Amino acid sequence: MTSPTRAELREHLVRTAIAGDVATSRENNLDHYRSLALRDPHYMFGLSFEGEWSFRQILELMSEKAGVVADPAHREGQDVIDPDRTIDAAEEMADRIAKVLRRGAPRVAVATGHPTGLLTVHLALARFAAANGAVLVTPAEGWTYMGGGIGRRRRIRYLDGVAMVEDRGSFVHTHDPHPMRAMLAEERPDFVIADHGWAGAAGEAGVETVGFADSNDPALFVGEAEGKIAVTVPLDDNVPPRLYAPLTAYLLDRAARSL
């Protein structure tokens, strides 16, 4: 589709609740910030942190980076993502992608833990990278591990160059960093486009990484603050896939113009 203007994209993000008044509740956001402050591995996405990152510090960071309500006394009800922060970060992500592609034949890994939402964005970015000289790497395909807390083996499977976790024939949502660690053990890419534990594990390993994260997933934003993640784009990460089309078009147009 034709790329929207910034104003058109901003209106779309708010209208579709990709940003603005998002579906993620204030209670859920604060619960996840507390869990990360307690270093719950499920919320750390494979990252380690140098700073203290208390609950209050995480809330302050999320207010700065994603635009959630800064007041700690706001404990329930609606929370928000600032659409201008979403667009600013998307532009920075696009510029980073273009910079990597200008190097000539970079090895790029693309992965998502959100096959019901953000997969469509990752597929488009993978196609764009490949069309502009990148080598899409697909290491560790078929690698399995016990994941999801349900006593079944999950495996890495690729769809058009995008890595996901598969469970009995279905792509599944995951925060796990283990699959990306397996990929890195087999082949280390130059650049990673991802989310959740895929992005966290890559950034922790020192690979240049850009990613997407919801307002209830603060780990990548903390990783960005500590220099392990290059760019984190704040957005609701699980709206109907078709609704991401204008954002995807804006990203690709910005990257193409930056090549």
Automatic annotation (TrEMBL):
InterPro entries listed in its UniProt record: Phosphatase_SCO2771
Any Pfam family the entry gives: Phosphatase
Name this protein carries in UniProt: Phosphatase
